[in-house]
Design brief:
Layout lengths: L1 E9 L7 E13 L4 E12 L6 E12 L2 E12 L4 E12 L7 E10 L7 E11 L9 E3 L3 E3 L3 E6 L6 E9 L2 E8 L7 E5 L13 E12 L2 E13 L7 E9 L2 H6 L9 E8 L10 E4 L2 E4 L2 E3 L3 E2 L17 E4 L18 E6 L6 E6 L15 E2 L9
Parallel strand pairs: 10-16
Antiparallel strand pairs: 1-2, 1-8, 2-3, 3-6, 4-5, 4-7, 7-8, 9-11, 11-14, 12-13, 12-15, 15-16, 17-18, 18-21, 19-20, 22-26, 23-25, 24-25
Length: 387
């Protein structure tokens, strides 16, 4: 049992001849009510072989968690070296919403007797940290990652069978209640099928996080909420579809005879497509005659490349040039440099020490960009029967 004590001053002004003692402890707690019962006992003790008193009327006050639980006069007889238990009791303390609680305790003593050795006044105080009462149920899920259309099970271990629960999911920024779990069990669980319509909220990705929350209730009072995340994925069967392919020959002569002519036909492809469940198609590629083309439309038998390529400034490597300068005054460098910030160092001096030479560098030039390396080519075809 926890205890606090304080000196009681006697009429003569001396201290520590008597002590006021307050003992206290947590007797029990209720998970359902989120409360604890605290027991207390207040006493007076003679600390010497000489100090005692008989039949004095003394007032004792006990305050627990800011509430006065005892305020009464008692007729006390206390022998030398004795401890006299004066009063005791219990009080109910409501915990904070998260189940924790720390309380203050104090006691005070007063007596109007003016006898030289009579106890007159004293006090003591302390604190007590109560048991943290289990509150909100922590949820768990059987599948940390699953596809739309699949079922997930949310479960937990409740601190009391009298607790009920509400189940929520947060998806795409919106929190929605998806179910309730009645009281009567300490192992609440709930199954939920992920809507396939959620895929429409993922036009540019294949997965997103959903947050499942259990809110715990004691009767109609919410005692807290806890959450868990799951990764929701687009079904593997959800893929873009090709709606149509139109092929025409850009060479009117070949188109007229209805044949694909090697080295002459220029086939123009137009591809239409759509994404499933509102998804966005990020790329289209077509492989034709061992050649891969990117984009929704292209023309075969195209030509490209070049034998020679002249680099433009953007394609040149980034570089600088050295400059040797002889200023007229022999002391300054690169008078024509914009801003005078071009770096330079002295290279040599003439014998008469009247002129100096200076090395410097130009500002960087060249964009470091890639340039064409493809040799000339043409895409050709063999004869192919079309009908």
């Amino acid at each position: 049992m926890a205890e606090c004590s304080g000196s009681i001053r006697i009429t003569s002004g001396e201290e520590n001849k008597y002590s006021l003692i307050l003992q206290y402890r947590e007797k029990s707690y209720s998970v359902e009510k989120n409360t604890s019962v605290v027991y207390w006992l207040v006493s007076i003790r003679s600390n010497t072989k000489y100090h005692n008193h008989t039949g004095l009327t003394e007032n004792f006050i006990v305050v627990i968690n800011g509430t006065t639980v005892h305020n009464a006069n008692h007729t006390i007889t206390c022998g030398v070296g004795q401890t006299i238990d004066v009063a005791q009791g219990t009080t109910t303390i409501t915990h904070d919403a998260d189940g924790s609680k720390k309380i203050s305790v104090s006691a005070s003593f007063s007596c109007d007797n003016t006898n030289y050795y009579a106890p007159r006044s004293g006090s003591c105080s302390g604190s007590l940290t109560l048991t943290t009462i289990p509150r909100a149920t922590s949820p768990s899920i059987d599948k940390p990652s699953l596809e739309c259309g699949s079922t997930i099970k949310i479960s937990g271990t409740s601190a009391s069978s009298k607790f009920s629960h509400k189940v929520y999911v947060t998806w795409n920024g919106t929190k929605t209640q998806i179910g309730t779990i009645a009281s009567g069990t300490t192992t609440p669980s709930f199954s939920y099928t992920i809507p396939t319509a959620w895929e429409k909220d993922l036009p540019n990705s294949t997965s997103e996080i959903a947050t499942f929350t259990l809110e715990t209730f004691s009767g109609s009072t919410s005692v807290g909420s806890k959450s868990v995340n799951a990764t929701i994925k687009v079904r593997s069967s959800v893929v873009p579809s090709i709606d149509g392919i139109e092929v025409t020959d850009a060479n009117s002569v070949c188109a007229g005879i209805g044949q694909i002519v090697q080295s002459q036909s220029r086939l123009k492809f137009a591809i239409t497509y759509s994404g499933a469940q509102g998804s966005t198609v990020t790329s289209v590629s077509t492989k034709f005659e061992e050649q891969t083309y990117n984009g929704m439309s292209f023309t075969s038998n195209s030509t490209g490349g070049e034998f020679k390529h002249k680099l433009v400034l953007e394609e040149m490597p980034n570089h600088t040039h050295y400059i040797l300068d002889q200023p007229s005054d022999g002391n300054t460098g690169f008078s024509g440099d914009p801003g005078g910030k071009s770096p330079y160092t002295r290279a040599t001096e003439r014998a008469d020490r009247t002129k100096r030479y200076w090395w410097g560098t130009t500002y960087p030039s060249g964009g470091d960009k890639a340039h064409n390396n493809v040799q000339p080519y043409i895409v050709t075809y063999f004869w192919r029967r079309t009908k």
